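Worked Example 4.2. Consider the chain below.
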Amino acid sequence: MVLKKKKEIQVDAFVLECQELETLRSFADAEDQNLASLLLHCVQLSDGIHQIYSMKQIVTLLKKMDRNSACSPMIKCCLDIIGVMYFSLGAKNPLKKVLASSLNGLPEQLTTEAVHSFVRCLKEELKTTDLCLYRKVMDNLASCMENFSLGKASINNLFKEVLQFLQKSVLEIQEENRKLSGNSIAETRLMHDLLMAIKVSMMLLQKVQENFQGSLWKKPGSLVWQSMCGLLKSFSNFLMNEGLLPTVQTTSGLAVILFTKTMFEPVEKLPCLVSDLLLRSVKCASVPEWFVSSCGCLCTEELSDSVLLFLCHGALAMLEWKNGSMGENGEKLLLDIVLVLLSLASRLKESNMAVSLSRILAIWTNSALDVLESSSQNLKSSLNGNSNTTGKLLEYVYTHWEHPLDAVRHQAKLIFKNILRIHQATLKGSVVKSDPFFSMLTESLLSLEWHVKGKYASLGCLVECVGVENILTVDRTIPAQILDVMGDQSLAPYASDLLETMFINHKSHLISAFQKNIWINHWHDTWVSPLLLILCEGNPDQTTYVIDYYLPKLLKCSPDSLSYMIKILQASADANIGSCNTRGALGALMACLRTARAHGHLQFREIMRDGLLSIGCVKQGLVHQHNQVRIDALGLLCETHRSTEILTMEEMQLIQFFITYNLNSQSPAVRQQICSLLKKLFCRIQESSQVLYKLEQSKTKQELIKESAKWDHFATLQQYKDFMSSICDKLFEALFPGSSHPTRFSSLTILGSMAEIFSAPEGQTQAVFQLAQEIDPTRVQTLIQCFASTFEEVKVLAFELLMKLHDRLDLQDSENLHLLFQAAMDLSISTKPYDCVTASYLLNFLIHHKGLLNGCLKHQQVAHTFQIDEDMSASTMEKNTLAVIKYLLSNLEREIFQAEKSLLQAAASFPMYGRVHCITGALQQLSLNNLTLMTEWRQMVTKLILMSYRLSSVVSPIVQSSSPEGLIPMDNDSETAGHLQMILHEIQPRDTNDYFTQAKILKEHHRVDFAKLTDNEPVENVCTEIRGKEGQTCDVTAQMVLVCCWRSMKEISLLLGMLCKLLPLQTASGSSDGLITVEQVKDIGDYFKHHLLQSRHRGAFELAYTGFVMLTEILSRCTNESLRTLPQQWLYNVLEEIKSCDPSSKLCATRRSAGIPFYIQALLASEPKKSKTNLLKMTMNELISLAVPVNESPNIIPQVHALNILRALFRDTRFGENIIPYIADGIQAAILGFTSPVWAVRNSSTLLFSTLITRIFGVKRGKDENSKKNRMTGREFFSRFPTLYPFLLQQLEVVARPMDSETGELKLHPSLFLLLLILGKLYPSPMDGTYSALSMAPFVPFIMRCGHSPVYRSREMAGRALVPFVMINQIPHTVQSLLAGLPECTNPCIRQNSVHGMLLQVFHLLRSYLESKHRVNSNLQQGLVDIITCIKAKVWLAKRTP
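Applying the procedure from the previous section yields the following structure tokens:
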């Protein structure tokens, strides 16, 4: 609704060298009217925009030149200058594009001279030998071929030279990239240069085709041919080089096919050659010698999966598929490509490869559609819906339509849509709607559960193809079923899109079949009536999502339906007003009117005028029991289609009524919506008021006569001002001392919106309202008091509001400033943690005031810290910030000195973390890249870093202790103190790795000498009573000491991290261009490393991790080589230390490896996102090998660390889909680790397994353990993780082996629960076809055997796990087999557990069978009859007497 100011376009101006300037001056005339004069004026301009206008005038003048003038020296000189200008400009400079478009229209007599000039310039460009300038030359070549006739002609004249330059640049860039291995920034730059070279080479072949006419260039001795062969060889090497970026590889695949297509003869055999390459059946003797010498690696070496993928892409993109130009060989190639792609689908699991594969498969379907336009009958039969190829494509779609990557899901939808079109193209005039393939697809899709997201997009495609009537014929309740699903927010967008497709298609069908008064009623019954029922009686979530996603689309399709909806709802609005759980008809009416008004179907005046809603009803809605009804009623008042619609007096009164009763809403979501809607209202007031002001200013004399109109405008503006003032009064009244957090949050947020929207921008002379005019000292004090709130978001809102009103505040009273400053200082050493946050906001507020220094200098106790010259050019804020930090630091240094003597005294009287927090907060307010007092700041930064290390040394012994939670006893008698010392001696060795390998016995020399304790000698760290500031006795608890220490560590970490992130780095020692040196950054890195790897308290190492992340992000982008490589060195070092099993290592093996996972997370997250993530791959491979040791090792510490680190990495969302390929290995490590005899390994394996289950199946969003929302089909699971198929099968066989023992003893395998848990997360799908190589049948006998377990929980899980492995049509037979396996009445020994397990399996199979819609009724009846017969034979088991 708010219009943003357009950004001004900045264009770099072209600057001509002195020699060309002098030449140009020699041709200029005295009147500055000739071409040379205009061009001279143009190049001397300093503004690029002005140069563009000037250049257009020059080209216009050029086009008017006659034939005689074209050959003059002045014209040649000017054309030369224009050529220099063109090739000097950057590729993205608008002036370059203007030049190209303008010069395209030169007259013929000038074109020749212009080409000569451009050829001379391009020749100079091609002589470039500097590798850094190659990219500029390639950009110029690309620009010349991009819709620029002069440029294309120039390249045509220098075709050989251009080819030779490209060949030379490609080879040199490749060699330079090899030399710079390890320098990620330089490598990335070279990769993009290489990519550009490949693209320019392809453009050359595609856009400058004149050079490829005839056969002279194909002679082996031709320079063109040699360059082409050289480039083709380079591109083949790039394609095979897995170390390059995927974009370089895939573009190389395109180039290989394009160059081969251009060079290969005869053309008819080209598809056969490509097919042989893909199928790895190339015979070198049967292909040209030049191809073997250029692409020998593709013919003889084993091609990786990625190379095959990129070759498929090249074939699809570069070969001519339309009009059947490649004949039968092309059709065979088309089928070969899809088979190769589908085989790759089961092997390529990396996220970028999975996306590429899905995109290329979609391209294949488009190519297939092109070929089918003029294909043979054989191809049509090979691609119809019943073919093997289509079946495999559908299998791919069903497996990937719920893929974690959105891009893959989108491509799966496109593939499915094209499959339908391909089948249509293969039909010979038959009726599409009655086609068996479409009927089968319809039945299969409708039989799926509605929680399957892929179902919605596929059904939408099917509706577009066969029409919605065919879908509704199967089941008329489908619209209601889809609306029922919309209670789940994750499904609501998919459901609404499907509904939109269906009701639009249905409307089109009905319009063509019936008259309006007939079809509209039928359409309303199908789509509107179910909606109204849900709006009135549906649950809150469902109605909200239906209103947000479905209702606007319905009204857009049929605006006339609004009157029908209002008519029905009005009839019952008085009787059905709703409750706290349902909207009722009143709430539904509010929702419909709000949506209609927001989308421009209604205006508020029309609502009031036509009696659609009374003021009383609106008020009733504004205070309704149901939160969302109140929001809808407010939305009706605030949301409009036009942001300049004028508010009516009724709307203003209703808004005031709403604010009176709704500021204290307890729901955060409701508060956010209220504030958002009111912000829209304020924007509307601001914009409509500006319209009114403009109307007043633009009135003609005749309009000024109409005083009534003039009066209305002024009256409206005055109403606006009075309304905003009254709102402001209500909001400040609500900020009384003791007001609730919701009230304060709402009031401050709304006031902040008012201050933001009604600010007076430059150039705006009239404003309807200014919040600053409503602010007086009392209200300023009210806002300052909000800093005392225990909720930080209230402090933030109050501070931001004060900053917006800062220019209007008058706080120059020195006494006031001093009181506030002293209060901040006292709060900064409070023992209550939230007080230091208050102090920080208060200081940040005071720092902005000029009178801070003078006000504080009057007091002697702080005067010595503010020795800053008032005449300095530094800003007030910079001087104040420096002074405040100096004062805080001086106090902190004294307190650290005291803490070094007595940490107990510090924890009780002056916990130091508050001072550090205030320093960090003050630094964050300042722009550290634009400082004036550089010397003072450099000294300050050094002091801050040293202070951080000193404070850390005081508190780190506590947080690095193996038991930091209780180091100070509650009692101070000697016996308790003695026990404490004994405990400390006993637990201390547990910090080292030899704890797991050596038994710990408390030896005599470890014991404390109690005799010493009975003497009068003091015992350190035992006394828990100290004297406070006023001399009173204070009890110091272990918790107080720990809070003081870990919060101090937290603030130090955040301060150091922020210093590295915000401060400019010194590029050289002793230079004045930065505040922090390279050595200081390295020291800070070592500090973080030390504390992350040795801290035991979670609060300490979690916050150290936050600071460390700030540091690593800076290091990864740093230009300094020694700093940029630090994360990689640290990573290698810590992995080596983990693998070393050194007993003296200080790495913590308890507490889930403490800070080690955080340390490795930060290092890996710093890796550039667009790189090949080599560090992540290396780390994951190392950790997987440690987590699944090949040989039994006596030291299990590395395995424990590896499992804990893997858990942290799998949980980290920053690694995105790059971590997915390692999930299968992680599952194997967790299951195998669960069989370890060591508890630590089993515990870590359990945690890892839990994380992986969440990562695979999603976060659980309901209480139902067996909900299908967090499950997937068996085929989808094993297609994503194919290596788990043999592993789980083998493990299941091992687990099931002892289940059939005759003794019935309890022999539980440790992995039984985990295996059944995974298998139980799968479910059967009617879409499971027969095209997958992974059969579910081998699992069945082992799961059945697990049902004989003596443990009830295992039998129940086995019953659920069996269901996904039995096809729907096989369930009756499987049930009969299970029933037949029940014991006969003549059996002497009946094992009750086995009987119960088999009956549970029968129960779950039958329930799945009866719930499934994918069955034929006749088969169902016969199957049930057979099952009942079997059950009757076993009824005796239920009739036995105990």
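The first strand starts at residue 1025 and ends at 1027. The CA atoms of residues 106 and 550 lie 56 Å apart. Compare this with Example 4.1 before moving on.
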